[in-house]
Amino acid sequence: MLQERNAFHRGRTLALLAVLAAVMVAVVVGACGSNDNSGSTGSTAASTSAATTGGGSTTTGGGDAQAAAKANIEANSKIPQFKLQAEPVDISKAKGKTLFNIPVASTIPYVAAVDAQMKKVAQANGVKFVQFENEGNPTQWAAGINQAINQKVDLIVLQAGNDPQLVIPQLKRAKAAGIPVLVSHLYQNGESPPANVADLIAGYVTVPFHESGQLSVDYAISQDGCDGVKQTLIITAEEVPPSNGIVKAMQDRLAERCPDAKAQVLNVPVVDWGTKIAPQVQSAVSSNPNIKWVLPIYDSMSIPASAAIRAAGKGTGQVRIASYNGTPDVLKLIQDGDIMAADMGENIGWLGYANMDQAFRILAGGPIIKDGLEDTPLRVFDDSNVDETGTPPTPDKGYGDAYVTGYNKLWGIG
């Protein structure tokens, strides 16, 4: 655990934080997506202002805002369909080649599950899959890249959020050796790798981090309208790379839907989640009776936040939570009580296929998806559909299997 914490301080990415929930839920109250701000614990008031929608019309709140939010939640509550528009690829050209997978941390069940899915897809299509076990330390990632270079593999994958900026010397060695590198689950849809990394990697796979925050806000508005989000508490971890982008997306959505809304942003560094989220959330909801929604940007924050709301005597629907990741233990909170209202889930199986699609494309000599957009979806889970994830929930249920058919068609598999 000490190594994991050290890795967080060195720039651990959202993927690690999102999935660390599965580990830390089992050992503490909860667990674990940067900016230039300090990582000290604290809270700030962030006032939102009027904004325009994508169509250019100003949203004034009220019933129109609630209706728009409900429509968005309804659209994202259904079993997702396969929407990826990409050129077909002849993955038979990848057969016999070797993929060397370096996960952000092998000890995390969520990451291990994605790795297992990738291995299954790779081996089913004749690609050798080498797994590099590690505990989440960038020094270990560097050692893995060096090992892959020495073994003369055909592709190195930095899987589930390893920050390539922490291993640039090794990436330069890989490039000099003619070994391409793929980065997954680090960049927001529409974002590109920084300039000092872009020339050192062959491809990347993006995910909808910002959309998760927008959906959390919309869920709260869909339930209680703009009156219910006038005083909202957002919990973040500023030291994690995608966090500020998610929070800004949430604030922008509040401003768009409900111009009079104000969000208090509570920053709790990852290493303090188990000890500081609960007392600070309890203090916030006790001192401000107008807070009806708490929106942690990663759902593992929801476990201590739920305990805090209950301790404040507001655990019977007065204060509710919506968050992101779809961690099974958090989905179970939806099934079991009134505090955890919704979770914006992400499908492990789909992520595994998406990562392997880009990997196959690199191994086969193209065509790659240049912007990394594999169009992996989110699904909103609440009381209406959470039982589709299983009882108790499991990581890969509740999303259907359209992605299997969709990718097989792109790969020329019957």
TrEMBL record:
Residue numbers spanned by region Disordered: 35-65
The organism's place on the tree of life at top rank: Bacteria
Ranges in a coiled coil: none
Entry GO MF terms: carbohydrate binding
Keywords from the named record: Signal
CDD domains with a match to the protein in the record: PBP1_ABC_sugar_binding-like
Subcellular location: Cell envelope
InterPro entries listed in its UniProt record: Peripla_BP_I, SBP_2_dom
Bias (Gly residues) ranges: 53-64
Residues in Periplasmic binding protein domain copies: 103-365
GO CC annotation terms, alphabetical: cell envelope
Low complexity compositional bias, start-end: 35-52
Stated family: Belongs to the bacterial solute-binding protein 2 family.
Entries under PANTHER family matching the protein: D-ALLOSE-BINDING PERIPLASMIC PROTEIN-RELATED
Name of the featured protein: Periplasmic binding protein domain-containing protein
Source organism of this protein record: Capillimicrobium parvum
